[in-house]
Amino acid sequence: MSQLQFDLDHVIDTLASEGWVVIPHALSAAITANLRTACLEVWQQGLFHEAATGRADGQARRAEIRSDSVLWLDQVAALPAVQAYNAAMDDIMQAVNRGLYLGLVELESHFAVYPEGAFYKKHLDRFQDDDARTLTTVFYLNEAWPQQAGGQIRLYLDADCREFIDVEPEAGTLVLFLSDRFWHEVLPARQQRLSVTGWYRRRGGNMPW
Ligand code: OGA
Ligand code: MN
């Protein structure tokens, strides 16, 4: 049975027309809470590493661009909370493929912890040398996030970055957007901020040049 708590058809229509969608209470409170507990447990076990930018040879730690720490979910795929999350996200992938013909084949995702003061400056998610990342997913795990705590994702809605929306990283909120189209940033968080960020990938993707 699907764990999704929203109308998938409506989400697909919105993605088709706008290229982005914000879904509050996307998964059940139980799945969300279990995922939060799992994230904190593996964080406390010291399994995270400081995030880098770029990929492969171009990877570098750039603390002036981003200051979060991450743990790829494939490292902790046996955790029941992670399995429940992946199953729900798979349902979304199937629906997106049926509705939008994006040809998505897999989701790669990581837990992210932004310690107090952490941020991620304005960027696009698609790598210069790999265009497989197609649809970005961000799922938040912060119960009762206070507005004064910052940490919103600022999603720019046009190519000139004149128009934007700020979304609070409240537990249960899922944000989806086309990875190559939408600039975005994470405003400085004034308290610890937890999320699962991922990318649905198309097959291939490595550019031939
Ligand atoms: C990212 C990212 C947004 C967020 O990890 O690439 O933009 O709200 N995350 O955590
Ligand atoms: Mn991003």
Q: How would you describe this structure to a colleague?
A:
The structure is a single chain. By secondary structure, the chain is an alpha+beta fold. It has one domain (8-51, 64-202): Sandwich (Jelly Rolls), CATH 2.60.120.620. 23% of the residues lie in helices and 28% in strands. The protein contains 3 helices and 11 strands. A 7-stranded antiparallel β-sheet has the order 1-9-6-11-4-3-2. Strand 7 and strand 8 form a beta hairpin. It is globular, with a radius of gyration of 16 Å. Bound molecules: N-oxalylglycine (OGA) and manganese (II) ion. N-oxalylglycine binds next to strand 10 and strand 11.
Radius of gyration: 16 Å
Q: What is the CATH architecture assignment?
A: Sandwich
CATH fold field value: Jelly Rolls
Portion of residues in beta strands equals 25-35%
- The number of strands is 11
Query: Which ligands appear in the coordinates?
Result: N-oxalylglycine, manganese (II) ion
Which residues sit in consecutive blocks of at least 5 with pLDDT less than 50? none
Helical fraction: 10-25%
Number of helices: 3
Total domain modules: 1
- Average pLDDT, rounded to a whole number, is 93
The biggest sheet, with number of strands, parallel, antiparallel or mixed sense and barrel status, is:
7 strands, antiparallel
CATH superfamily: q2cbj1_9rhob like domain
Query: What form results from the Cα inertia axes?
Result: globular
